[in-house]
Amino acid sequence: MTTPILSAEQLSATTLLRFATAGSVDDGKSTLVGRLLHDSKSILTDQLEAVEQASLNRGQEAPDLALLTDGLRAEREQGITIDVAYRYFATARRRFILADTPGHVQYTRNMVTGASTAELAVVLVDARNGVVEQTRRHAAVAALLRVPHVVLAVNKMDLVDYAEPVFAAIAEEFTAYAASLGVPEITAIPISALAGDNVVEPSAHMDWYGGPTVLEHLETVPVSHDLTACHARFPVQYVIRPQSAEHPDYRGYAGQIAAGVFRVGEAVSVLPSGRTTTIAGIDAFGDSVDIAWAPQSVTIRLADDIDISRGDLIAPADDSPAITRDVEATVCHVADQPLSVGQRVLLKHTTRTVKAIVKDIPSRLTLDDLSQHPAPGQLVANDIGRVVVRTAEPLALDAYADSRRTGSFLLIDPADGTTLSAGMAGASFAAVAEAAAGSAADDAEWDF
């Protein structure tokens, strides 16, 4: 592993904290997000005026802050979240991208989409109802996606008279469950999103609680997914060969560093060919630099002329990912059309897209009780299942546990380009299910 080159203070100031909200229906996710934006002064005056007017039109005296994120007409009519709503905001201490995800079972795929890049998940629980089935489901998805930090926000504490025993019982139950799923860090915070208690400002009604507010925790939580400390990976996006009189011999490989650090003079391998060379130069922002790190967009120049094209991966010679054509992974199926054994698909991994066939679907995760259903034959919308995919060309694929960026991929319908499934290489929900419970194609072109 490469030694980090940025201090904790620099990371806090320069990186985004991506986080997602989740929870059961009517637990107050959108209201929490609206309160967070409102009390941190991260919304414009005209936005607030529009929400106030919309609330008055619905007969509400106070502004309904949930309307700041529930933007679809169907969401406002039904009072629920359907799609993932992304919002950007910043404080003096950190910048954020948040994803407000739906709570309904039928929108599990949306929750997976919102949490797939999150470094923290806020799981809301209604203090009156405690931990419910959907709470457990969202905790399982967060564990499967390897979200490093989970916040349990026990909401609507104002409706239980801010009682500490109610909060303590819910926090104990959820923490034990999430820990059994392998969630590495759980922080419980009692809040009232509607009244603003412990969201941005400490609550005057819960002097028995001495922990951080939601915003304070978001501002200070360590950014554990430091890309500069990961295995160095550079997917080639574009080959630059101007062939001009000024630069007759220039050949560079442009793209965004997915993870890690690259240095001039470093020995690297070009995958999947396996050819080795050294980095002759790195161009960034119009200048030559000696070092570059994720997520910078740079052009790398190599010492040797090697056949390299879009989709190839440059990695340290002594720290390269395995090359494979047989991909075993957990996928979340996001399309309305099923994914079936024997189906021809395209597999997109970083900048590389290859033909593939679904060889097997060994099991499906039953979301009701988080048990495994063996050999389902196909996956339908919102299903999470294990798949075995055979690719036409070799891939340089990391395990999802090692790198969420280079261990993930998409399965795509070759007919119309529709995204079918989002995959996590090597990831398994066996531990999740255990804790919760206490056809080959006949076309020669596709027959790999």
Description:
The protein is an alpha+beta fold and 448 residues long. It has 3 domains: 213 residues, Rossmann fold, CATH 3.40.50.300; 85 residues, Translation factors (Elongation Factor Tu (Ef-tu), domain 3, Beta Barrel), CATH 2.40.30; 114 residues, Translation factors (Elongation Factor Tu (Ef-tu), domain 3). The protein is 20% helix and 33% strand. It contains 9 helices and 25 strands. Strands 7, 8, 9, 11, 12, 13, 15 and 16 form an 8-stranded antiparallel sheet that branches. Strands 2-3-1-4-5-6 form a 6-stranded mixed sheet, sandwiched between helices. A 6-stranded antiparallel barrel has the order 17-23-20-19-24-25. α6 packs across α7. The longest helix has 18 residues.
